[in-house]
Amino acid sequence: MNIAVTTRFLKKPLEGVGQHIYHMLLHMISRHPEISWHLIADHQYPVLPKNPAITYHSIGIPARHPILWQRWYEYSLPKLLTKLRPDAIWYPDGFLSLKAMTPSVLTIHDLAYLHLPEASIKSHLGYLKRKMPIQVQKADHIAAVSRFTQLDIVTSFNCPATKIDITYNDVDARFQPVSDTEQSRFRDTHTNGRPFFLYLGSIHPRKNVDTLINAFELYCMKHPSDICLVLAGRWAWKSKKTQQLIRQSSVGDKIIILPNIDQQVYELVGSALAMVYLSLFEGFGMPILEAMRSGVAVITSRESAMSEVAGDAAIYVNPRDIENVTQAMYRIRSQPHLRQALIRAGLKQSSRFSWKYSSEILFLNLLKVARLDS
Question: In this structure, how many other beta carbons lie within 10 angstroms of the beta carbon of residue 206?
Answer without folding.
Answer: 22
